[in-house]
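Incident log, support desk, overnight shift.

02:14 A customer reports that sequence design results differ from what the structure should imply. Their input is reproduced verbatim below. On-call engineer (initials T.W.) acknowledged and began investigating.
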């Protein structure tokens, strides 16, 4: 990639009027005039889309979905609407730290996927792991530990979060489309792709202040046994599908 490639920030919104303006302000202050923010609103029933439209910033492009499709399909639509060489994912309710764009775009110079760490908005604390242990973070030294990362992803112990991830445009020929059966964890799909392709960077610097509240799409509390098992099986299926796509791409050059 050329130095400081064009940047697209993609966001899926749904009933996020309370927080989306603050989040977009933290995003826009890091972008150039030629960069873009693509917001696809998933048929919100509140004023989310109107808040976004009211920003009146030429870098922000709002797409109103006529029907609710869920956040995975909505993120895919936002990615497809984007045009930048570096695609950065953003949730509607967080706040970006000042070096978010800089450090993730730098990581994409040598890798197809980049993932950074988070802090909790309001406290500055790190995330707690599944067992409640503090300091649950990605380590740069693990970036090339592909099998360990995939095992950790399948076990739910690698903190890959879409709100702190970026992907290069040239990865999307393989990573998209998301399968029809993938109805959650698009971020883990991208992380699995990066690891299977041998091209993911773990960025230790925190780049996002994550807002924890009852309506987070990523659960803040452990789920029941059956939903957790279903999720793990779906991720295993994702790994199999991504291996097939990567092998096909290597054979065909596409």
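02:41 Re-run completed on a clean worker. Output:
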């Amino acid at each position: 990639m050329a130095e400081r490639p064009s940047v697209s920030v993609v966001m899926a919104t749904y009933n996020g009027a309370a927080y989306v303006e603050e989040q977009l302000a933290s995003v826009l202050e890091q972008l150039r005039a030629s960069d873009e923010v693509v917001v696809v609103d998933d048929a919100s029933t509140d004023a989310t889309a109107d808040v976004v439209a009211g920003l009146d910033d030429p870098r922000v492009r709002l797409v109103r979905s006529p029907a609710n499709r869920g956040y995975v399909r909505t993120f895919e639509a936002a990615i497809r609407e984007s045009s930048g060489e570096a695609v950065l994912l953003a949730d509607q309710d967080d706040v970006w730290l000042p070096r978010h764009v800089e450090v993730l775009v730098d990581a994409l110079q040598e890798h197809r996927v980049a993932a950074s760490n988070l802090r909790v908005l309001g406290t500055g604390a790190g995330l707690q792991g599944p067992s409640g242990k503090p300091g649950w973070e990605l380590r740069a030294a693990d970036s090339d530990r592909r099998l360990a990362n995939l095992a950790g992803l399948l076990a739910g112990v690698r903190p890959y979060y879409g709100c702190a991830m970026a992907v290069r445009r040239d990865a999307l020929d393989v990573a998209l489309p998301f399968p029809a059966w993938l109805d959650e964890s698009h971020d883990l799909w991208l992380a699995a792709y990066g690891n299977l392709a041998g091209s993911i960077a773990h960025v230790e610097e925190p780049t996002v202040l994550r807002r924890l509240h009852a309506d987070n799409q990523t659960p803040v509390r452990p789920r029941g046994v059956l939903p957790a098992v279903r999720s793990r099986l779906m991720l295993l299926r994702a790994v199999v599908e991504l291996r097939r796509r990567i092998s096909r791409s290597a054979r065909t050059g596409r």
